[in-house]
Amino acid sequence: MGTPFQFQEWITAHSEHTESALDRLLDSAQVTPQRLHEAMRYAAQGGGKRIRPLLVYAAGELGDQSSQEKNAALDAAAVAIECIHAYSLVHDDLPCMDDDDLRRGRPTVHKAFDEATALLVGDALQTRAFEILATAQCDMNNRLHMISVLAAASGSRGMAGGQAIDLESVGKKLDLAGLQQMHAMKTGALLSCAVELGGIAADLNANQLAQLQKYSKALGLAFQIVDDVLDATADSQTLGKTAGKDAANDKPTYVTLMGLDYAQKQAKELQETAISSLDGFGDQAQALKDLALLVVNRGK
């Protein structure tokens, strides 16, 4: 019998690896312009759950044995998507958006530095993400595929578009289908992208990538539902950001639309859907299955 999979050890090892890759692939704070690079590192290296890089590495385990090329692709993908995620948080916290002072338990970038710097941090992190993918030491076709996937997930038909719908929906009533569409774009797109990037780096075929999409779609929706539940039930210290912001800003959420009990039940059902969609991958998918449990059970 093989050694049982130790998820916490896996989390620790891959989280540390993510931090090392971020440190290596981000410009040093000593490089001109120093203040901008310092702020970029503040935004990207300021803690967080690192769910997206972890999903990249977990999906990467579905392919053949590790190689230098595969590892380079996974590192580039993990850092690139975390740069996109960090940029989105920096811009989301700005006064013209959600106007928040707290992120990951410390001052937001525009509070720690200033608004103009925060705007540039987001811009620079976004472009750095694609530079990292474009120069990754891996197969050229995989590089191009990863760039295309990340661009689509980040843009007007993905994360940025979802954010636009979110802003337009303040004070309005969305039905369940509209709420799901918004969050599939705003939150789900990058989570799905993380899984797909790992699959591309692992050279999975089209059928395998389609199966992964079922997992990531369910996971992305579950992630946002749990976010809504935590925003309504947890305190700011637990969240690492200001609690109750959605209600204060009169934003539609799963909790306000369907109630707390429904939201919690729906998250659990989506977790089960995500896990069952991985049955064809066998033991190699254990990290992805455990990440689905982690996403839904966080805050408990």
List keywords for this structure.
2 strands; Farnesyl Diphosphate Synthase; mainly alpha; 300 residues
Can you give a write-up of this model?
70% of the residues lie in helices and 1% in strands. It is mostly helical and 300 residues long. It has a domain at 7-212: Farnesyl Diphosphate Synthase. The chain has a two-stranded antiparallel ribbon with strand order 1-2. Helix 1 (7-25) packs across helix 4 (68-92). It starts with 6 loop residues before the first helix and ends with a helix.
Amino-to-carboxy terminus distance: 33 Å
User: How many beta-strand elements?
Assistant: 2
Rounded to the nearest angstrom, the radius of gyration is 18 Å
Question: What structural category characterises the helix and strand content?
Answer: mainly alpha
Overall CATH class of the domain at 7-212: Mainly Alpha
CATH superfamily of the domain at 7-212: Farnesyl Diphosphate Synthase
In CATH terms, what is the fold-level topology of the domain at 7-212? Answer: Farnesyl Diphosphate Synthase
Low-pLDDT runs of 5+ residues are none
Strand order of the largest sheet: 1-2
Average pLDDT = 91
